[in-house]
Design a protein that fits this description.
The complex is a heterodimer. Chain A is an alpha/beta fold. Chain A is about 40% helix and about 20% strand. Chain A has a 6-stranded mixed beta sheet, sandwiched between helices. A 5-stranded parallel beta sheet of chain A has the order 2-1-7-8-9. The longest helix of chain A is centred in the middle third of the chain and has 17 residues. The longest helix of chain B is centred in the middle third of the chain and has 18 residues. The chains are: A alpha/beta, B alpha+beta.
Chain lengths: ~375, ~350
């Protein structure tokens, strides 16, 4: 299949794996930022093609995993109202809030709908003028432009019954939080290709300089990831710390300029709590004052909600690359996709879910420590 | 026979354009619906008396008996509709027991306000599917529920078939070394229904693979293939079928990912939606577990689309995982989907 098979070719993969092995002279720890990359790595077994000196750590780039518990509880509260049609991307529906998930709200009679685009939610608002239509606007810089577009159009057209529950997060502040942590093990990054398609990579250049860390903007197919690792290892071995672009077929240095302009029009940078990690300054997007009327948290008065994470869940440590999913004693026993303790076991991009889905046979055969350091968020 | 009716709905649209509560009331309206919509399409000797039950002649062999209920939204999709599913689904369950399907019952739950022409279209599809599968609809029932209490049409079918082979076909007969044969490409039904339901458009149209499987199964048995186990791939796709059979048989399987046929348009749709082709629904696909020495015979009998996708491994100390060799030469396992397959965020 065109534009897909070329990036999954076995012979080229072996060549790249050999090149990585040749280039590697000592241990290196590299983090792939995006959950989509994590799933590709685990699904295709890319880590098993690498020399033993290379450790891949799975990063915080799973939008479902880092959406804070408070926002999920707010979503559940709003979606339970009889006057609301609540719209969301599909994989947010199964993420547990403090007590319920959105699927349970739906089965209890709430009007919860899966949409493929926030523009679809806007259309539902046009068609149902007597209902309040709320879209759960989560995700990284990748999903933010479409959400910005929906709010922008709602304002232009004067659609009063549309609002968004916003919990957007930004990648560079999270990378900086990891790099500045005392527990940091990361020596090089594979940056998220789709985020950089929107934002470009100028924001990463000061990070690479300040922390002396190579950052390779990387795609999502097996060959992309292998090539990204290769470029990162070459930089590490040569003592360079630069931003390089492996994903040039999609990413420009300046990113998608109209999309960025729309983001700065509709959103403003705010401090944001990350599920399992805690609050990171200037790490999120909230609605700009001119668009505050479309803020669902404000409209439905659920802004002040607080929540407590399950202390057994180590997802915060997993998201920061401090622990791996298989090091959690609850993995596959107390915590499964059907009965998850944390979001990393639910999401299609969560690291725990990836290991459960593709590698359970290896994890379950390995002895794990009896005590886990809880993160609690 | 059916073609004569296909042109025009037998109940004049001017009189009763939609299903009304009275159509399920057991009175004149019910009778009119039965006599003008169901009987002409399903016509057969066993149904003709319209008695409380069908009286059937004895069959030579063990009987297989199954039931399934069909709720699909939308009712009509590219390559089929709820009627085709209702016949083929039950026919296929019988076929997976190694049975030759003989008779079906059909229970309809209709929603008040359903256009009669939609019901007619579904019943015609059922008639055509029954004819293609060599099975007769010999008894039935109709109920009507208030508007807003159903999705147009729900259909339950139960089926009886006769097993004319001495083989015991089921997970208990799976043996280490068996080859796993698949009868064609996977994932088209699930993508076709999702495309219709969500209004998704792809460059090339994807049609459901909905088809009766009794024919190919009977062909395998007649050709002398010692079939150990059969399973049709429905909801949960190839993944659910293999994981469930592996657990039932308590044996590990090994599958080669690039041996499983998936059409480019299905792969493309799955990539866009973040779905796994192995876990997408099918309605005309099955896996057969056969002795390795009969692989060529089985594949030749199934025709051009049959593919050997893997084999049954010796019983090990591990839980019976289904391992998949990826095109890169690495290995992963197959895992049951937790619930509905959900398109992901980005």
């Amino acid at each position: 299949m065109k534009y897909l098979d070329e990036y999954r070719d076995a012979a080229t993969a072996r060549k790249l794996a050999t090149a990585i092995a040749h280039a590697t002279t000592r241990p290196w720890t590299i983090m792939e930022v995006c959950g989509g990359q994590t799933h590709a790595i685990v699904r295709f077994g890319i880590d098993t093609l690498l020399p033993p000196e290379i450790t891949l750590l799975h990063g915080p780039g799973c939008p479902v995993c880092v959406t804070p518990l408070e926002v999920l509880d707010q979503a559940v509260a709003i979606a339970s109202r009889p006057d609301v049609i609540f719209c969301s991307f599909g994989d947010m529906l199964r993420v547990p809030g403090s007590e319920h998930d959105l699927f349970q709200v739906k089965s209890n009679g709430g009007d919860v709908r899966i949409v493929y685009s926030p523009i679809d939610a806007l259309q539902i608002a046009r068609e149902n003028p007597r209902k309040e239509v709320v879209f759960l606007a989560v995700g990284f810089e990748t999903t933010a432009p479409a959400n910005a577009m929906a709010v922008h159009r709602a304002k232009e057209e004067g659609i009063p019954n549309f609002s968004v529950l916003v919990s957007h997060v930004l990648v560079p502040p999270a990378m900086e939080a990891i790099l500045s942590s005392r527990k940091n093990r990361v020596q090089g990054f594979l940056a998220a290709g789709h985020v950089c398609t929107v934002m470009g990579y100028t924001e990463y250049e000061p990070l690479a300089r300040k922390y002396r860390v190579p950052i390779v903007v990387t795609g999502f197919e097996p060959l992309d990831i292998l090539q990204g690792v290769h470029m990162c290892v070459l930089q590490l071995e040569e003592g360079r710390a630069e931003v390089e672009n492996q994903y040039a077929r999609s990413v420009r240095r300046e990113g998608n300029v109209p999309a960025r302009a729309l983001l700065s029009e509709v959103f403003t940078v705010v401090p944001r709590k990350w599920r399992g990690i805690g609050e990171i300054p200037e790490s999120g997007l909230g609605l700009a004052p001119a668009y505050a009327a479309f803020d669902a948290a404000r409209r439905f008065r659920v802004e002040d909600h607080t929540a407590q994470e399950n202390p057994e869940c180590i997802s915060g440590l997993v998201l920061q690359g401090v622990r791996k999913p298989q090091e959690c004693p609850a993995f596959g026993t107390k915590c499964t996709p059907l009965h998850p303790l944390g979001a990393t076991m639910v999401s299609a991009e969560g690291a725990c879910a990836a290991y459960y889905k593709y590698r359970r046979h290896e994890v379950m055969a390995t002895p794990r420590s009896a005590s886990a350091e809880g993160s609690g968020g | 026979m059916i073609d004569e009716f296909a042109l025009q709905c037998p109940i004049p649209l001017d009189d009763n354009p939609t299903v009304q509560m009275g159509h399920g009331g057991g009175g004149r309206m019910t009778r009119e619906l039965i006599e003008r919509v169901f009987v002409p399409v399903f016509a057969n000797e066993a149904l003709a008396p319209l008695h409380d039950g069908a009286i059937l002649p004895p069959a030579r062999g063990r009987l297989a008996f199954t039931t399934d209920t069909f709720v699909v939204r939308p009712l009509f999709f590219r390559g089929g509709d709820v009627g085709t599913l209702a016949v083929n689904g039950t026919v296929n369950d019988l076929a997976m027991c190694g049975a030759r399907p003989l008779y079906l019952s059909a229970g309809f739950i209709l929603e008040e306000g359903l256009p009669i022409k939609d019901l007619w279209r579904v019943v015609l599809s059922m008639g055509a599917a029954a004819k293609a599968a060599g099975v007769r609809v010999v008894t039935g029932d109709t109920k009507v529920v208030d508007r807003g209490h159903g999705d147009g049409i729900y259909i339950n079918t139960a089926g009886v078939g006769v097993i004319e082979t001495d083989l015991t076909i089921g997970p208990g007969s799976i043996r280490p070394g068996d080859a796993i044969v698949l009868n064609g490409d996977i994932g088209r039904h699930g993508i076709a229904v999702m495309a219709e339901r969500e209004g998704l458009q792809f460059e090339s149209e994807i049609s459901s693979d909905c088809a009766p499987l009794a024919g190919p199964v009977q062909d395998l048995l007649r050709a002398g293939v010692e079939v150990h186990c059969l399973r049709d791939l429905t909801r949960g796709g190839l993944t659910s079928a293999l994981v469930e059979l592996g657990e039932s048989a308590a044996l590990p399987f090994r599958i080669r990912e690039d041996a499983v046929p998936v059409r480019d348009e299905v792969r493309g749709a799955c990539e866009i939606l973040g779905l796994e082709p192995f876990s997408v629904a099918n309605e005309g696909r099955f896996v057969a577990f056969v002795p390795s020495g009969q692989v060529e015979l089985a594949r030749a009998t199934l025709g051009g689309e049959g593919a050997v996708i893997g084999s049954v491994e010796p019983r090990g100390t591990d839980p019976p995982f289904v391992r998949v060799e990826t095109p890169l030469g690495t290995t992963r396992i197959l895992d049951l989907p937790s619930g509905e397959q959900l398109p992901r965020i980005c």
